[in-house]
Amino acid sequence: MKKERYLLPLILILVWQGLSSVQVIPSYKLPSPVEIVLGFRDILIVGVPPGHLLHNHMLYSLYRVALGYAVAALLAIPLGLLMGWSPGLLRMIRPLFELVRPIPPLAWIPIAILWFGIGIKSAAFIIFLGAFFPILLNTISGVLSINPILIEAARTLHAKEKDIFFKVLLPGAVPSIFVGMRIGIGIGWMTLVAAEFTGVKEGFGLGYMIMTARDIQRPDEILAGMLVIGVIGLLIDIGLRAIESKTIKWQ
Amino acid sequence: MSLDLLELSKTFQGKGWGESVHVLENIQHRIENGRFVSIIGPSGCGKTTLLRIIAGLEKASAGKVLLDGKELVQGTEEVGLVFQEYALFPWRTTLQNIEMGLEIKGVEKEKRREIAMEYIKLFGLGGFENRYPKELSGGMKQRVAIARTLIMNPRVVLMDEPFGSLDSQTRDAMQEFLLSIWQGRQGTTIVFVTHNVDEAVFLSDEILVFSKRPARILERFEVGMPRPRDRTSPECNRVKREVLQILSKETEDSMGLPWIK
Predict the structure, then answer these.
(1) A158 touches chain B (CB under 8 A)
(2) Closest CA to B139 of B174, B168, B105
(3) Domain residue limits at B104
(4) What is the CATH number of domain A35-41+54-247?
(5) Which of A130, B61, B218, B222 is the most buried (most CB within 10 A)?
(6) Å from B157 to nearest chain A CA?
């Protein structure tokens, strides 16, 4: 079973390499796998633009995501718990959010740049918008999905509102909060790369890197950069899943 | 000293144009402290509603509940409720479920752990204290639920068809277990809702037969046999027959099945 998983990709890569070698696939449009590996070496040790090495691009991107994502989680989780807890609050706030939510985070880039200037704050703001709503909505639905009988059971054990909030609603909503956090980081990460296309002051960032590679006509470096972006996104999701299964042993 | 139900009535108001439902009609009864009282009646007759009112989860439309002459306030420590479907907190282990009430009360960790471990031993849950509810059998879950309620030392324990979903051997064992626990706690009143006549006769000092909705007390049986009881003894069968006679008539009426007669 294990081996079969790698069989198809391996065949594809070999065919791709073969077609590239006999010039059926033009290298200036789609470099061969070997060229992409060499491109990866270049972004790693030469840098795009020269001197701006891959690990620094990664650090800047991760920093922007971490900042926007942390703010999103810190606001969305408590707010979601409160909105799930209080029907009045839910009715009051939901229409506003329903209006704002369908606006793509990327559509906020112009106004973000106007508000925060080009730099870390506007990038983080875009990430924030991408991550906030999935975390909020999943937290709310997590609270709403808790069996009401558990709240009654807590009441018969003389729980006050505070106890019900912290000992029933919060732990009961945790699985759903994790779902929201995983969707949120996924959207945040995708949004980041696009946000870096338009406004980066520091000269670092994975999105900035692949746009620069395009400017200097290096499709091998573009594709190597895209692969790096994908692999980091995958690793983040694996990491969150690991934390999730450690935290939620009861499901 | 007693638990008094004084002219309790309950009507659920329908939402909007929905019809309102009259569930309890003038329930008037005195339960002496320390007794084991079963309530039996057609399904959907309002037995659960009565328990919920006594537990303070529901407000009566009229009438009140007194314990030793004082009206019960919501959230009182005097009353505990064991739910029909266990209602264990799935994210808490056996130990954490049992100590939930003490935790809410603010008993310090060492102390409440010590008390909870005693209950775990008493309830035969040793070795399972760190398991989550999904890893427990139905009988074990119900023991956790009962322990979680009893650890708060309520003077009145309300039980809503607690053994309804257990297989019959586990059910018999749980009944005997419940009796032994109850007999070890002087003065604890148990109000036990069931639809199983065998169970009611085996367990109770007193059986109340409820009518179909709106529920009234149709008949009251005093079950005088000494314990331990033999489920198949002529005395048990005699009480069972009497209860069944009243109950089956009421159930036929409520189901509208004339061809049974």
Answers:
(1) yes
(2) B174
(3) 87-153
(4) 1.10.3720.10
(5) A130
(6) 11
Residue B49 domain flag: no
Q: Measure CA B49 to chain center.
A: 12
- Among residues B112, B127, B153, the one where a domain terminates is B153
If you search the block for the tokens 């009497």, which residue do you land on?
A: B242
Q: How far apart are CA B53 and CA B57, in angstroms?
A: 6
Note whether B165 and B253 are same-domain residues: yes
pLDDT at B257: 57
Which of B153, B171, B201 is the C-terminal boundary of a domain? Answer: B153
Contact at CB, A157 and B79, closer than 8 angstroms? no
| Residue A241 pLDDT | 93
* Partner B contacted by A2 (CB < 8 A): no
Contact in structure between A79 and A140 (CB atoms under 8 Å): no
In this structure, are residues B181 and B150 in contact, taking their beta carbons and an 8 Å threshold? yes
Q: Enumerate the domain spans of chain A.
A: 35-41+54-247
Contact residues, A window 138-157, toward B, CB-based 8 Å cutoff: 147, 149-150, 152-157
Residue B128 counted as domain residue: yes
How far does B35 lie from chain A, in Å, by closest CA?
21
pLDDT in tens, A23-35: 888 888 899 999 9
Name the residue of chain B whose CA is nearest to A147's CA: B87
Note whether B112 contacts A: Cβ–Cβ < 8 A.
no
The nearest CA of chain A is from the CA of B14 a distance in Å of 20
Residue-level pLDDT at B261: 43
> Position of tokens 């042993």?
A249
Contact in structure between A142 and A176 (CB atoms under 8 Å): yes
Tens-level pLDDT at each residue, chain B (261 residues): 899 999 999 998 877 777 888 899 999 999 999 999 999 988 878 899 999 999 999 999 999 999 998 988 776 789 999 998 889 999 999 999 999 999 999 999 999 999 999 999 999 999 999 999 999 999 999 999 999 999 999 999 999 999 988 999 999 999 999 999 999 998 899 999 998 999 999 999 999 999 988 899 999 999 989 988 999 899 999 999 999 999 888 877 656 655 544
The domain tally of chain B equals 2
